[in-house]
Amino acid sequence: MARIVRPVLAIRCVQSSCRTLFEVAVLEDGKTQEVVCPGCGEHYVYPPPKEEN
């Protein structure tokens, strides 16, 4: 039987030529992480920064 070691979310790369679906760890509130798409190497900040009005 498997157990969850770290909760994860799946995100999809937004590059039109890639569109790879990959997992990122769920973080505590207020923390961010830089993730790299395993398909094309595009860098993302997760979770996305909130836009200020």
Beta percentage is: 25-35%
Low-confidence stretches: none
The helix tally amounts to 0
Give the N-to-C terminal Cα separation: 47 Å
Let me know the largest β-sheet: 2 strands, antiparallel
Q: Whole-number radius of gyration?
A: 13 Å
Structural class: mainly beta
Q: What topology, given as strand order, has the largest sheet?
A: 1-2
SSE pattern: EEEE
- Inertia-based shape: flat
Number of strands: 4
Percent of residues in helices: under 10%
Mean of the pLDDT scores?
Answer: 83
Compact description:
The protein is mostly beta strands.
List the helices and strands and how they pair.
Layout: E1 8-12, E2 21-25, E3 33-36, E4 43-46
Verbal overview:
This protein is an all-beta fold. The protein has strands at residues 8-12, 21-25, 33-36, 43-46. A two-stranded antiparallel sheet has the order 1-2. A two-stranded antiparallel ribbon has the order 3-4. A hairpin with a 6-residue loop joins β3 and β4 (43-46). The radius of gyration is 13 Å and the shape is flat. It starts with 7 loop residues before the first strand and ends in a 7-residue tail after the last strand.
Task: Name some characteristics of this structure.
two-stranded antiparallel sheet; single chain; 4 strands; mainly beta; two-stranded antiparallel ribbon; 53 residues
